């Protein structure tokens, strides 16, 4: 069958854009199709009267993100464009924020933990450090934790370890349910990422990487893909405006979306797609006329609110001070806060009108940030129905077989392929899939060892 192009990439998030970037020198014609009017996906940002608002991802760790930093260097980004995150992370306990979460000094200062719990947390950290080589974030199914959930891991230690450390971190940064989510990917990711003192952000907004990549590849925004049908040696792509044929199609979208688009996916692949669920994310940006911040001091970057500390009906899971993360997020003398809904509160709020979401979240947030209502200039609501891949024990058990899938005209890239919710997971899978597509199309080969 005659083809309109060699490779159609569905989705202009970091996975789709970095895949197209890797394929650019193979001699293949590659085009990225994005339903939204902008690139970035879950790493998007927008600008409003001098504020830079990160709608999805918030930071990028220094450690454990080797391919992300290699790609940034290839794109000519300087270290100054990715400065360290300002301020510590605190956890709310007994009416105030306790700093030191994800920091070694938290074992000394408390970080919301009782003395006995600090000893147990030290035991946990020491055990995972000794077995560090066994916690490969790209192969979470091979770790010593097996299919144990985060809650089952926490149950081996003092209750505070789960209530004030593991639970709040899992809920805030992954949107996971500790009782349902596998511990292996979480521990592997946290081991790789290191303490918050080494985390960074993009000075120009979290969409910086996506915008740089988009400038190097062929991207069509506002072009939603409605259906993908695989043939023997090509695939059809039906968009909002046309139907075209490609030698290969790569679905760089969340697993539930890929399952919906790929109408004749093989049974073995569809099983993993169905098991790889995503958790929703709901948050409100508060653009302020002064630099308020949560926690015990004005330089706290993030305040995590544990489930055991939330009162009845309290929907707040965390509050982030984006102007502390990087001063360029807000004009001089002003502030920018993000109020994140707790995972347990999202189902009832997700489809509510924006005005209702703002009212519920910001009213509750004043408990943690006094004066928030008076300082707010304007609010924006951000929803991601497919926010982050949730690594359940079922998905973990199916991942190895899915990774061994044969070459076919329709393939995938995204952080969910390795159950590693991060830009690093997206970039690594994009490089691996680029090498697969090069082999499938007999293009100039990509050395996967060089690409990954």
TrEMBL record:
GO terms for molecular function: oxidoreductase activity. InterPro entries: Amino_oxidase, FAD/NAD-bd_sf, Zeta_carotene_desat/Oxidored. Pfam families: Amino_oxidase. Residues 14-437 form the Amine oxidase domain. It comes from the Bacteria. This is Amine oxidase. The lineage of its organism: Bacteria, Bacillati, Actinomycetota, Actinomycetes, Pseudonocardiales.
């Amino acid at each position: 069958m005659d083809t309109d192009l060699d490779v159609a990439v569905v989705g202009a998030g970091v996975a789709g854009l970095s895949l197209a970037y890797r394929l650019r020198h193979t001699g293949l014609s590659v085009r990225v199709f994005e339903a939204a009017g902008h690139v970035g996906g879950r790493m998007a940002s927008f600008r409003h009267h001098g504020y830079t608002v990160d709608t999805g991802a918030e930071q990028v760790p220094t450690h454990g993100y080797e391919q992300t930093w290699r790609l940034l260097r290839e794109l000519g980004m300087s270290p100054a464009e990715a400065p360290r995150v300002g301020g510590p992370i605190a956890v709310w306990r007994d009416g105030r924020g306790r700093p030191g979460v994800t920091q070694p000094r938290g074992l000394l200062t408390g970080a919301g933990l009782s003395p006995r719990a600090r000893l147990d947390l030290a035991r946990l950290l020491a055990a995972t450090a000794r077995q560090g080589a066994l916690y490969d974030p790209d192969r979470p199914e091979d770790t010593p934790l097996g299919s144990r959930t985060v809650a089952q891991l926490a149950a081996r230690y003092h209750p505070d370890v789960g209530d004030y450390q593991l639970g709040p971190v899992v809920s805030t940064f992954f949107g996971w349910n500790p009782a349902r989510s596998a511990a292996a990917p979480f521990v592997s990711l946290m081991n790789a990422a290191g303490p918050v003192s080494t985390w960074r952000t993009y000075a120009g907004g979290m969409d910086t990487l996506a915008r740089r990549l988009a400038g190097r590849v062929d991207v069509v925004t506002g072009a939603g893909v409605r259906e993908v049908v695989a043939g023997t040696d090509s695939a059809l792509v039906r968009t909002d405006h046309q139907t075209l044929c490609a030698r290969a199609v790569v679905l760089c979208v969340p697993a539930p979306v890929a399952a919906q688009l790929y109408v004749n996916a093989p049974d073995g692949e569809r099983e993993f797609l169905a098991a790889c669920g995503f958790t929703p994310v709901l948050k409100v940006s508060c653009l302020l006329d002064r630099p308020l911040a949560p926690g015990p001091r004005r330089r706290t970057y993030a305040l995590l609110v544990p489930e055991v500390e939330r009162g009845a009906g309290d929907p707040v899971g965390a509050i982030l001070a984006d102007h502390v993360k990087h001063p360029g997020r807000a004009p001089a003398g002003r502030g920018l806060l993000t109020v994140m809904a707790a995972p347990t509160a999202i189902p009832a709020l997700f489809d509510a009108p924006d005005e209702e979401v703002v009212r519920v979240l910001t009213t509750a947030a004043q408990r943690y940030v006094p004066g928030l209502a008076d300082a707010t200039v304007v609010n924006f609501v951000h929803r991601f129905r497919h926010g982050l891949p949730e690594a359940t024990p079922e998905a973990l058990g199916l991942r190895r077989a899915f990774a061994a899938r044969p070459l076919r005209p329709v393939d995938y890239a995204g952080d969910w392929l390795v159950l590693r919710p991060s830009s690093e997971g997206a970039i690594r899978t994009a490089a691996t899939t680029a090498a697969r597509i090069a082999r499938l199309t007999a293009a100039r080969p990509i050395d996967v060892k060089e690409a990954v």
